[in-house]
Specification:
- The complex is a heterodimer.
- Chain A is α+β, with helices and mostly antiparallel strands.
- Chain A has three helices and five strands.
- Chain A is extended.
- Chain B is an alpha+beta fold.
- Chain B contains three helices and five strands.
- Chain B has helices at 5-16, 20-39, 85-93; strands at 44-46, 50-57, 60-63, 70-73, 76-83.
- The chains are: A alpha+beta, B alpha+beta.
Chain lengths: 101, 96
């Protein structure tokens, strides 16, 4: 499911809002999460999960094609840890649904 | 301090003019729908942010690290998040 399909789905369940309103709101929710991660602030959504940053040290890597050594800088990468409720519900769903992708 | 649903709802109120109740409803519905889609076995792909994907893990032998006792780990389905290139770049470039 894509973002636009998600917007349509939410709009159908919240008929008091226009689809445009939902689109603005969803974009704002995503922006708020991106801003928070960029500011190195964790995000905690009860029942859904939390987002934190993982720190990767600088290291020497290799160009897989040429075998040449390259130095890779330290970086921060977003990490999501599913909450208990999401984890349990998704695990239980394996009994009756296939992964559709 | 962590960003919570209440903080996000407050931003919708401040920035878009929804009232408090409306903001809370939309924020709740957003996360609820993502969960419902995942529980139905479908990936959720949010462009510019990242993809929530599902993976079936095979059972494997495990061990209780404290007691050293063998504890089998059962087959399970897990959610993984793949941040988009854009999110990775934004987060990484923000570091001083």
């Amino acid at each position: 499911m894509t973002k636009s399909e998600l917007i349509e789905l939410i709009a159908r369940k919240q008929p008091q809002f226009t689809q445009k309103d939902i689109e603005l709101a969803v974009n704002q929710i995503i922006d708020a999460m991106v801003e928070s991660m960029a500011a190195n602030e964790r995000i905690e959504i009860r029942g859904f999960g939390s987002f934190t940053l993982h720190h990767r040290r600088a290291r020497m890597g290799r160009n897989p094609k040429t075998g040449e050594k390259v130095s890779l800088p330290a970086k921060r990468v977003p990490h999501f840890k599913p909450g208990k409720s999401l984890r349990e519900r998704v695990d239980a769903s394996k009994e009756h649904t296939d992964i559709l992708e | 301090m962590a960003l919570t649903k209440a903080d996000i709802a407050q931003k919708l109120t401040d920035r878009l003019g929804f009232n408090k109740r409306e903001s809370k409803e939309i924020v709740d519905q957003f996360y609820t729908e993502i969960i419902e889609v995942l529980v139905q076995g479908e990936f959720v792909k949010i462009s510019g942010f990242g993809n929530f994907e599902l993976k079936d893990k095979n059972p494997r032998p495990g061990r209780n690290p404290r007691t050293g006792e063998d504890v089998p780990i059962e087959a399970r389905r897990v959610v993984t998040f793949k941040p988009s290139q854009k999110l990775r770049a934004t987060v990484d470039n923000a570091q001083a």
